[in-house]
Amino acid sequence: MGLLSRISAGIETPAEIPLSFFDLANKYSLPHVCVFRKSGNFFVASASKGLDGDTILQSLSTSDFWEGTVTDNTWSTFSREDNNLNTILQFFSEKMKSEINFAQVFKNGNRILLLAFNDAPLDYTLLTTISQEFIKSDEFVKKTYKSENSESTVNVHFNVIEALNGLMQQLNGEIRTFVENAVYTETCFTLENLLDAPNSLTVSENKEFTVFVNTPSKLTEETLKAFIVSVLKPLYKENAGMICYAEAN
User: How far is CA 180 from CA 166, 167, 171, 173, 231, in A?
Assistant: First the structure.
């Protein structure tokens, strides 16, 4: 039965599942990427990969700024060579500013996709494909991780609720919701990038994380916990010490 026949017969076609931010960033191996989402007269980070905590918190910007900087549904490229990169570098932490030489920005209504690179920008053909997929994406689609690794020799279960609250400080309302999701996505990417198979990661609906490590070495839980704090410190800053551990299920 064709589409028109299905509609005439009153049969609903399955809704297309939007592409997640995780899939979009991984599919094109984007090193530094941020989605900004509009809230009132502001834009703020709502998803992140390859950024630190200061950069995410510095993402709050006005609609007027973006309307005067980029054009809807058109890619804009910024570079040190063209002497216009400072327009975008204001969002990056002092540490990251020295690492970025190119930025490419695509605005689509109430959402903005910002890509940053150390070496070279992407070509127009690839950017066109990425923007088409970005329009159909949703950064609030959660990533599904594989189930518990029963072969793990060490596993650590923890949540970042207190650390996240410390990082958010005075943020509230919709802006807080967006920034929390940016920190959540960044946390997932950071941990995932450290875990080659057969090591694994699970994340519950309430953002509780479990890291499973299978290693022949004498790795202890305490060593793994200290390592997790160290790799998440660029994101949570001094609040990384507020990560709460519990017995893994």
Answer: 11, 9, 10, 11, 18
CB atoms within 10 A of CB 40: 11
- List the structure tokens of 219: 């790795």
DSSP strands (E only) in the chain: 19-20, 32-39, 42-49, 61-62, 75-79, 102-108, 111-117, 137-138, 154-159, 200-203, 208-213, 244-246
Amino acid, single-letter form, for residue 137: S
102-145: pLDDT as tens digits: 999 999 999 999 999 999 999 999 999 999 999 999 999 888 77
Radius of gyration for the chain, computed over Cα atoms and rounded to the nearest angstrom: 20
CB atoms within 10 A of CB 2: 7
> pTM value?
0.89
